[in-house]
Design goal:
The chain has helices at about 25-50, 65-80, 180-185, 265-280, 300, 305-320, 340-345, 350-365, 365-370, 375-385, 395-415, and strands at about 1-10, 50-55, 85-90, 110, 120-125, 125-135, 160-165, 165, 175-180, 190-195, 200-205, 210, 230-235, 240-245, 250-255, 285-295, 295, 325-335, 335. It is an alpha/beta fold. The radius of gyration is 27 Å and the shape is globular. It starts with a strand and ends with a helix.
């Protein structure tokens, strides 16, 4: 038996992209990006002639889904219906069943799972290709392990479609929490999961697979890199999986080293080269967070009042004029002053004394403990505890090293500014 299907999740249709500049071509491209990603998922289904599409929750950005988003979903699923391709949907915390007004129907080839566990069959020419099981969120918060309701009901390839937090993934609400052992015990071949926006897959006890395709369109600066869906090919009981990017606007975090960059012109050139290398031209647009790193002579220039904001304004205008246009999400300065460490060691003075004292504290845990027990630090620790701040019993040695470097840098900047 041979067939293909596509697994996608977390479409978040009609994400508003607040904070994106309202001028120029950028805002429109961002606002259309979630819809364009859905269209590209459907294009993939048609191109690969898949048997069905799985959508694992959070199809809409908000519970009260917009008319625009609902019409777009029906239009795209209608394209699959016309091609004889079925669709299976579960709803998650962003788009629970309680938010459906019932005023817009979907094609008959679309199966929307309800609040109770159900199983459907995919059949071709009278033969069963696959079993698909699913359950939707009745409302926003679901704290029960919904995976416990799933079970293998017979032979053949079986899929579990679920919006859930597997293994307590950080950064996501712990809705429908489940474990690898729990999923493995259900005996299904493929768990099509949604909720976690980072792409991942896990081999389960017993041999099944749990897969998060990630969201098909990045929505903010923490959702960087390619975003898409998973194409699964099943043949003779085995399966192959291929990630397929479908995003049209891509987010990036780019580090720009200042080491060896002596002028603003050189910095602008370095930024331009980095952006050109990272931002694929075939996409509709990009958004970047630029972080200046390393030590260089420009650090002092950038610490002048207003300098970083002025540079950011200039870069934002330059990048927005590119093809495709690039949104500068923010410019952040993580650079440090340029220091000649060998000279500091040989010249002596307070800077050298500070570095030597820090080295001795790092090498002598007893001396470090005595420092930590001094009255001033002890009373500070007590005040922090009363405020509910966790205080370590002993400082970490790397803190000593970092504090000494910051002290030397502060001395250097004071001398430079004198």
């Amino acid at each position: 038996m041979h067939f293909k299907f596509v697994h996608a999740a977390d479409l978040h249709l009609d994400t508003p992209f607040r904070g994106v500049a309202a001028q120029g071509p950028l805002l429109g491209r961002f606002q259309e990006s979630t819809f364009r990603a859905l269209s590209r998922i459907v294009d993939l289904c048609l191109r690969e002639r898949v048997a069905f599409l799985l959508l694992a929750g959070d199809l809409f950005e908000v519970k009260d889904r917009s008319v625009r988003a609902r019409l777009a979903l029906r239009r795209e699923l209608g394209r699959l219906h016309d091609a004889g391709i079925e669709s299976f949907i579960v709803h998650g915390n962003h788009d629970p069943l309680s938010g459906d007004t019932g005023t817009l129907g979907l094609p008959s080839s679309v199966k929307v799972f309800g609040p109770d566990w159900e199983e459907a069959e995919v059949r071709r020419e009278g033969r069963r290709l696959c079993r698909v099981q699913g359950i939707s969120y009745p409302d926003v918060e679901v704290r029960d392990d919904l995976s416990a309701r799933f079970r293998r009901t017979g032979d053949g390839f079986s899929v579990g479609l679920l919006h859930a937090n597997l293994g307590g993934a950080e950064g996501h609400a712990n809705y429908a929490p489940c474990t690898p052992a729990g999923l493995g015990a259900r005996g299904l071949d493929y768990w099509a999961l949604g909720h976690v926006h980072t792409r991942s897959e896990l081999t389960l006890p017993g041999g099944g697979m749990a897969v998060y395709p990630g969201n098909p369109q990045g929505r903010h600066a923490l959702e960087t890199g390619e975003r898409g869906c998973v194409l699964v090919e099943v043949e003779d009981g085995g399966m192959r999986r291929r990630f397929v990017p479908v995003d049209t606007v891509r987010w990036h975090r780019l580090e720009v080293p200042l080491t060896g960059v002596a002028t603003l012109d050189a910095l602008l050139g370095t930024v331009g080269e980095g952006v050109d290398a990272a931002c694929a031209r075939e996409l509709d647009g990009h958004a970047v967070r630029l972080v200046l790193t390393g030590r260089g002579p420009l650090h002092r220039e950038l610490t002048r009042p207003g300098a970083l904001a002025q540079l950011e304004e200039d870069l934002r205008a330059r990048l927005a004029r590119g093809h495709p246009p690039v949104l500068l999400e923010s410019l952040r300065d993580g650079s440090r002053p340029e220091l000649d460490w060998e000279a500091l060691q040989t010249e002596g003075g307070f800077a050298r004394t500070l570095l030597e004292e820090a080295r001795l504290l790092e090498e002598d845990p007893v001396a470090l403990a005595r420092l930590w027990e001094q009255e001033a630090l002890g009373s500070l620790g007590q005040r922090l505890k009363r405020l509910g701040v966790d205080v370590l019993e002993m400082p970490r040695t790397e803190w000593i090293s970092r504090a000494s470097l910051l002290g030397v840098e502060a001395l250097h900047e004071e001398e430079e500014g004198a």
